[in-house]
Design goal:
four-stranded antiparallel β-sheet, 11 helices
Length: about 375
């Protein structure tokens, strides 16, 4: 077992850390307060190769491994989870899905634009009545020979208004159940495709989350990903990798809150000494450190499994389940360590606590992760 990061991975980690400190930290509180999408920061992340990290260079990507991607997600999330989720969706759900399962024509037409950050993508699975139960798709894609006609609504779509390329999961043949679902590429501006109001969210307020409405949207058949009926399997395989990205995001939120709490504990004085000298605070920091390190190993193991070509359904579910809980627990304790200052925006940790909650919900709730984990361990 070798826990040492390579020289290249360390360089990538440092580049992400420097970017987060120099480009994301200034204005992060203001962006959160105004729900402002970090457009300029996304452009700079694209220049660094962060928008298509695992994509083959022949399609404009960086050609890096999943561990490098997790390192970048962790560093970005220490400062701005809104920016990191944009990176996560574009890399894990959109670019990876297209590169792995898309046709060569689709890759040449769409992937190079996505991986270089010329545009960003969105993954459209959730609906008003199909969140955790992804098989209950009400959005339909009727087969009309050389094209499909899409009707329906998608909810909670990250990059909902900022994206230009959307991967839409829709039901073509309801009699076949989940085997009648397809994944289709839809471009922004297609007639009948409307973007609903922006959601006013608890956390990750800098990312834009919208409902999407499809009214007789015509999509050419060459925009279908994979064979007829492959859509549900496509969504599940893509989400398994997406969980690694969100687990790394949760890890980063936890690590960032811990670092702020540690620094604050060495500066704040109470009863004549720095609060880090009080056992009540020192023990909190010890617990936080242990939990974060355990989460980090789970996240890196899932990323390693993916890089090795191993089945990572179980390891990614475990990583997301645990890391998201650690993010929630750690940010709550970070607020507590900051006391009254933790309850105001200037000290960041209240925002991180709000951001942490979504990691237990999107790309599969914690309850769904337990279903994945229990099924895996019970069948062996």
């Amino acid at each position: 077992m070798d826990f040492t990061l390579s020289e290249e991975q360390l360089m990538i980690q440092q580049a992400a850390r420097d970017f987060a400190q120099n480009e994301l930290l200034p204005g992060v509180i203001e962006r959160d307060d105004a729900q402002k999408f970090p457009s300029e920061q996304v452009k700079k992340m694209a220049e660094l190769g962060f928008m298509g990290m695992m994509v083959d260079p022949k399609y404009g990507g960086s050609g890096l491994d999943t561990i490098s991607y997790a390192l970048v997600m962790e560093e970005l999330s220490k400062i701005d989870a809104s920016a990191s989720v944009i990176v996560s969706v574009n890399n894990s759900l959109v670019c990876w899905g297209l590169e792995t399962f898309g046709s060569e024509v689709q890759k040449e037409k769409y992937l190079s634009r996505l991986s270089t950050g010329q545009c960003i993508g969105a993954f459209c699975l959730s609906e008003p009545e199909a969140g955790s139960d992804a098989t209950s798709q009400k959005t339909t894609a009727l087969d009309k020979g050389d094209h499909y006609i899409i009707n329906g609504t998608k909810n909670w779509i990250t990059n909902g208004n900022s994206a230009e390329i959307y991967l839409v999961i829709a039901q073509t043949d309801i009699s076949k159940g989940h085997k009648g679902i397809n994944a289709l590429i839809v471009e922004k501006g297609t007639p009948g495709f409307e973007i609903g109001p922006k959601e006013n969210k608890l956390g990750i307020r800098g990312s834009d989350t919208h409902s999407l409405i499809f009214n007789d949207v015509k999509v050419p058949k060459e925009n279908r990903i994979g064979e007829d009926g492959f859509g549900f399997k496509f969504a599940m395989k893509t989400l398994a990798g997406g969980r690694i990205g969100i687990a790394a995001q949760a890890l980063g939120i936890a690590a960032g809150a811990y670092e702020m709490a540690l620094k604050y504990s060495k500066e704040r004085k109470a009863f004549g000494t720095e609060i880090s000298n009080h056992q009540a605070i020192a023990f909190k920091l010890a617990d936080m450190h242990v939990q974060i390190e355990a989460a980090r190993h789970l996240v890196y193991k899932a990323a390693w499994d993916k890089d090795q070509g191993n089945n990572y359904d179980l390891s990614s579910a475990m990583a997301k389940l645990y890391a998201s809980q650690v993010a929630m627990d750690t940010t709550i304790e970070a607020v507590q360590i900051h006391g009254g200052n933790g309850f105001v925006k200037d000290y960041h940790v209240e925002r991180m606590m709000r951001d942490a909650k979504i990691t237990q919900i999107y790309e599969g709730t914690s309850e769904i992760q337990k279903i994945v984990i229990s099924r895996s361990i019970l069948k062996n």
